[in-house]
Amino acid sequence: MAAAGVLTSCAAVPAGSEKATIMVTTNILGDITRNIVGDAADVVVLMEANADPHSFGVSAHQAGQMEQAQLIVFNGLGLEEGVLAHIDSAKEQGVPALEVGVAVNPLAIQDAGSAGTPDPHFWTDPQRVVMAVDAIEDAVAQHVSLPDPGLLHSNAAIYGAQVAALDQWMATEFAALAPDRRKIITNHHVFGYLAHRFGLEVIGAVMPSGTTLAAPSAADLFDLATTVRDAGVPAIFADTSQPDKLVRVLAEEANVKVLIVPLFSESLSVPGEGAGSYLEMMRTNTSRMTAALSS
Ligand SMILES: [Zn+2]
């Protein structure tokens, strides 16, 4: 704690050349924030590659860094359950925190059991990420001292245009699917925004909720197996950051030929594995989904 006190007194008198620190919870928002901020500030991302945003935690060192940051950027809407207490305590210390999810016109989780609960997985809809880019740009402009504030706006405009181009490409890809090929079953309710944006229908999830922390009952799996059979879905979409044991149980239970397709649904991978950036993650998922659904 003595060390933290020393850090506080350093931060109170920032040298002109010292970069501001922005703390970001998820690696998806970390990539987006880095594209907006560039080298003008240190963007520290808490969540490692391939981690589960519902369950990752922070170290004591990271918690201390959060309390010294000029800005915290987090997903919110209930996503980062393991980090929320640290965000609250940093806010009590006067650190501004942007809850990006509330700035992107969130949808409710499309599941009877979670009715009315806001769905945190907004990044699966690139149009909402364009809104997130604006929200992050505004928060950085308001709270973070930058050497060249004009660069912030041009970076955000360039990156926002890339996300908008991704959205158009995805729309073309999904539009090519036949109407009876638009039903999807996923690991948990992670693709509601993508389904809403591109005209797919989520007919079930292995974990019947908006979080990976809830386990399905045997009856849930039996019901879902029936849904898989009746709907004739060709594939179940698993998550690369989650064990796919339950998905395999479901596929066996359904007793039909069904592909298990791993997607990068809520975490970036390390570079070179298909989801080194948000844009790459979305392109990989779109290609895998459209290939599986049209097979
Ligand atoms: Zn999730």
TrEMBL record:
Belongs to the bacterial solute-binding protein 9 family. Signal peptide: none annotated. This is Zinc ABC transporter substrate-binding protein. NCBIfam families: AztC. The lineage of its organism: Bacteria, Bacillati, Actinomycetota, Actinomycetes, Micrococcales. GO terms for cellular component: cell envelope. The keyword Disulfide bond does not apply. One of its GO terms (molecular function) is metal ion binding. Keywords: Metal-binding, Signal, Transport. It comes from the Bacteria. Pfam families: ZnuA. Its main location: other. It is found in: Cell envelope. InterPro entries: AdhesinB, AztC-like, Bact_metal-bind_prot9, Lipoprotein_PsaA-like, ZnuA-like. One of its GO terms (biological process) is cell adhesion.
